[in-house]
Amino acid sequence: MNIFRLAGDMTHLLSILVLLLKIYATKSCSGISRKTQELYAIVFMARYLDLFTDFISVYNTFMKLIFIASSLAIVWCMRFHPVVRRSYDRELDTFRYFFLVGASFALALVWHDKFTLQEVFWAFSIYLEAVAILPQLVLLQRSGNVDNLTGQYVFFLGAYRAFYILNWIYRYMTEPRFTRWIAGISGVVQTALYADFFYYYFISWKNNSKLKLPA
Amino acid sequence: SSSTDVKDEL
């Protein structure tokens, strides 16, 4: 564990807490893409299959369980909570996300560390995570306004990916034989998507105008 | 190579 990875994990946790706080405090999920949240639930369940086979540390196991439980809780709230579900922007959240799941799985079948069930699902989860934010960005683009908590949620998610890139650079330099091509390249793609969003978020915030992402 | 070692990241 190095400081960059810890900072990445903490900002990731913070992003989820911000989202839960928004839903709990406002009893509303407007501006949140349920499709993105469902993709994250799939990402964590596919990636953490190793909970059954490998023990790394108490911290590692605890965080994995937190990520699985919190993502399922958010999806549950948006689908079934009697008050929260009414504010779901169903007509704006129309991204065809099965395409992302299919493409990520197809890529995992051809590019993985080992052709085993666990490794293919791990690679699948990495590719899917890289693009899981897309339905959320499309929803924000359509609704045209981003409330502070939703903006902070996406900001912390972006910070988490940026810290992980620093972590990989650090490990590459300090650990012999450390390479993470799959996670590294996917991580750069994912961080670029967030950086792009923040560029337009910042511009619209500075001009005090509606968010306008390029189509 | 270590790319196929146990995945120790989240």
From TrEMBL, chain A:
Major localization listed first in the record, in broad terms: endoplasmic reticulum
GO function terms (MF aspect): ER retention sequence binding
Matching InterPro entries: ER_ret_rcpt (IPR000133)
Keyword field contains Isomerase: no
Location of the protein in the cell: Endoplasmic reticulum membrane
Topology versus the membrane: Multi-pass membrane protein
Key word Transport present: yes
Family annotation (Pfam families): ER_lumen_recept
GO biological process entries: protein retention in ER lumen; protein transport; vesicle-mediated transport
Keyword annotations: Endoplasmic reticulum, ER-Golgi transport, Membrane, Protein transport, Receptor, Transmembrane, Transmembrane helix, Transport
Name by which UniProt lists this protein: ER lumen protein-retaining receptor
Organism: Vigna radiata var. radiata (Mung bean)
Name of the encoding gene: LOC106779786
